[in-house]
Amino acid sequence: MVRFIVRRMLQMVLVLVILSMLLFAWLKALPGGPVSAILGERATPERRAALEAALGLDQPVYVQYLRFVERALHGEFGASTQVLPGEDAFQVFLIRLPATIELAICAMVLAVVLGIPLGYFAARRKGSALDSGAVVFSLIGVAVPVFFTAFLLKYFMAVEWQLLPVSGRQDPSLDATRVTGLFILDGLLTREWDASWDAFRHLILPAVALATIPFAIIFRITRASVLDTMDADFVRTAEAKGLTASVIRSRHVLRNAMLPVVTVIGLSLGGLLAGAILTETVFSFPGIGDAIYQSQRDKDYAVLTVLILASAAIFVIINLLVDIAYAVLDPRIRTR
Question: What is this structure's pTM?
Answer without folding.
Answer: 0.86
